[in-house]
Amino acid sequence: MINLKIKNYKKNIFLSEKQFKNHEFIFLNYIKKLNNYLIKNNINVKNKFELIDFLYDLPEYEKNIFSQLIGGYLNHEYYFNNITFELINCFGEIKKNIIKNFKNYENFKINFIKNFINFNGWGWVVINNNKIFMLKTYENNNPLFSVNLGGYNSIPLLCVDLHEHSYYLDYLNNKELYLKNFLNYINWFEVENRLQNYFLNK
């Protein structure tokens, strides 16, 4: 069973409570569907990495179905955990790596918006072979997945939901403003923790 407590909403200029709750409902529905699948098939897992390990043991005809359930859960978990309702400056090893790969933080933000403004899916900052880069996944594919399942065998550091349901109530068609505000409300403690875990486990 997947149990998850979503953070409490606090008033901010990034997301209205209505937008947040609407998106939260979609996330919780993915968790419900995934749990139903796990119970129906008598599957016991302790963490998300065990979910992915189990995925690769499935028959081919079931892999795509289960990967979409896992991805719907994982992607939203990454997104909700890496947003915050407070202003936090980028710091630590993640800041050093952003500067190393994008020259400076402003250039990172410009590239982030340029990469994701016209895409409908998921936007990611990932690390692979000690290099940080941006990539996109369609539907509910996750960078952790193998290439044949729509992934990149990469470790997610930062995730932004680019589907309309994540922003349309607050931003209508102004995706650029959504992305700009997203960049101001990133939980860099969470992102730094993901990067440090990568270094510890590589």
From TrEMBL:
Residues 92-194 form the Manganese/iron superoxide dismutase C-terminal domain. SUPFAM superfamilies: Fe,Mn superoxide dismutase (SOD), C-terminal domain. InterPro entries: Mn/Fe_SOD_C, Mn/Fe_SOD_N_sf, SOD_C_sf. GO terms for molecular function: metal ion binding; superoxide dismutase activity. One of its GO terms (cellular component) is cytoplasm. Gene3D superfamilies: Fe,Mn superoxide dismutase (SOD) domain (1.10.287.990), Iron/manganese superoxide dismutase, C-terminal domain (3.55.40.20). Pfam families: Sod_Fe_C. It comes from the Bacteria. This is Superoxide dismutase. It comes from Candidatus Carsonella ruddii HC isolate Thao2000. The gene is sodA.
